[in-house]
């Protein structure tokens, strides 16, 4: 269902990424002095990750796991959406923890865990893909960099 929406409206993912890149450092800087709120926002940002990756879907699986290493592009809407999916959680975790590199690592491990769950639980109706992990990790790196920028804004005199 979400893929259909993204195919019909291919501008959604790039627009969401642009909004995150432009507003993320400023929102992150504001949250940097409010760690409890930053952690709450991180938890809230993980809800779409859980819903879009772990809620069972009714479809027939043709393969349980796909190994392919393709970089996301605007034309590959699902991979582009996978990038965007992990930007906000990584950004917010970077600000909340004040450790952008650790937030990136945690987000990448979380993505790998999601893919493993999809592979090990066929009842979800989802298949794992290395492309998804790669795209999620790219999004986590973008989020970590935005978190680092937000923390740098706070440290300025």
From TrEMBL:
Record keywords, A-Z: Membrane, Transmembrane, Transmembrane helix
Protein name: VanZ family protein
Residue span(s) of domain VanZ-like: 43-149
One matching Pfam family: VanZ
Residue spans crossing the bilayer: 12-32, 37-57, 77-95, 102-121, 133-154
InterPro entries referenced in this protein's UniProt entry, alphabetically: VanZ-like
């Amino acid at each position: 269902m979400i893929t259909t929406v993204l195919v019909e409206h291919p501008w959604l993912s790039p627009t969401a990424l642009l909004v995150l890149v432009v507003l993320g450092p400023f929102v992150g800087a504001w949250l940097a002095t409010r760690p409890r709120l930053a952690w709450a926002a991180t938890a809230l940002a993980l809800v779409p990750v859980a819903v879009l990756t772990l809620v069972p879907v009714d479809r027939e699986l043709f393969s349980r796991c796909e190994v392919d290493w393709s970089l996301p592009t605007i034309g590959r809407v699902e991979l582009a959406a996978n990038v965007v999916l992990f930007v906000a959680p990584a950004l917010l975790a970077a600000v909340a923890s004040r450790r952008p590199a650790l937030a990136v690592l945690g987000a990448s491990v979380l993505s790998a865990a999601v893919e493993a769950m999809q592979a090990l639980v066929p009842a979800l109706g989802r298949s794992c893909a290395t492309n998804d992990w790669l795209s999620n990790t790219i999004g986590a790196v973008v989020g970590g960099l935005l978190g680092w920028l937000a923390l740098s804004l706070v440290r300025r005199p």
